[in-house]
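Worked problem 6 (solution included).
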Amino acid sequence: MSAVSHRSSHRSEPQAGRGDFGRLLRAEWTKFRTVRGWMVAMTAAALVTVLLGLLSASGDHASCGSGPIEVACPPPPVGPGGEAVDDKFYFVHRPLAGDGGITVRLTSMTGQIRKPDVTPGQRNVVPGLVPWAKAGVMIKESTRQGSAYAAVMMTGEHGVRMQHNFTHDVAGRAGGVSPQSPRWLRLTRSGDTLTGYESADGTNWTPIGTATLAGLPQTIQMGLFATSPGDLTVTQGDLGGSVAASRFTEATGEFDQVKLQGNTSGAWRNDDIGVTVAPDGAEHHPGRASESGGTFSVTGVGDIAPAIEGPTPERPLSSALTGLVLVIVVAVMFITAEYRHGLIRITLLAGPRRGRMLAAKALALGLVTFAAALPATAITFTAGGRILRDNGNAVLPVSLLTQVRIVVGMATLFALAAVLSLALGALLRRGVTAVITATALIVVPHVLATTSVLPDSAAQWLLRLTPAAGFATQQSIPQYAHVLGHYAPIAGFYPLPSWAGLTVLAGYAALALGLAVLQLRRRDA
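Solution. The predicted structure is:
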């Protein structure tokens, strides 16, 4: 009988522990909600985030010229995956009905780059290729911008590649081959499956990769293409930050030994996909092509890649910094008020285990902050984005999953920042000192890194090593290895992925809580 009683007692201990923590959690929630000033301040943090975000979006207008009339900027083309894309190139093509393919020899690839003018008024155009200039063979669903495609190409500095649907890139084995060296390229279609090959002699072929373009129509377009993105130059600004500029470039591919397989009836057709047309009807930086005796010369301008430049949907969330400062103040007061009024002894009597007491207080505060920040960031992100579009801004589209990740991630950032501020308040026990310290750790590094104050390298290290790393959760447009861009915090790109940035912030919060518990135990010893 005593053994049974012993087992019952042994089983009841963890249940009592869970009940004790639940009681502590309810007590901390009751404390928070019964202090009107804290509830008002937390509500104000949410309202400030929304109101400032919508006000910022309302003042952000954009327009594009159409003769004497200003019109809303057109949205960028959208690729098969729903992402914004650049789809601008010169295409010499013929229709292909059913299965087939194209084989060519790219005899050389050359180009031109416009550099800063040495003599005012005289264009400084020099021969050369930018790293991701492209020329090769392509099979594309249609000539509509954003339609599905696969291409095998030579690049300016990255050798032979196979790319498809804008976001996918596979390196060929000829990684070190010069663009001026002849190279054989082949692309075949079998149903929805496209396969790319390369060869040095036109006899021995090496597969590069395959792409499945679901829903490819029976008749598609197949041919030769060339394109060249702008020459990106990044310089240091007067205040230390970086300034990026992109200048005109073009690439020319010389092709011969063109062989077609399959049902390719019809003549060759030349299309300058995505060329910009001025109000007077003239084409801006048009491409061109010529053919003589089976030899083709194709010159193109632009890029075939994900779009990374333009207004991003998280722009209205810049108002979160003001709301976050208010949250920091509330979080610090939630613990320092107990020290200031001598109530900490009562709290410790109710829950003498210091770790559980601080954990319950942190969890209650984190949940309250998350509950306030989630609708605030959702409204700011959704309504602010709609206002930006209504004001003529061509906001880059992102997937629903990305939108949810940004909203939930920002609410999580608020909650973790509140917990970190609470822990700093417990460590420092002085409200003003703790608020200044928390702001200096969380807010100030982000401001310094995303303004024209620090060099890019210093800004990136700040956003790796400080709690401000958590702001990476608001980045909507990813970095792409095959797209040359200004990937710096000032341009909205963070050095860590979203989850990694939040992990850094959570690590700081956990460390500060642990130190606060140790300090409480040491003072009681």
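Discussion: The CA atoms of residues 374 and 408 lie 6 Å apart.
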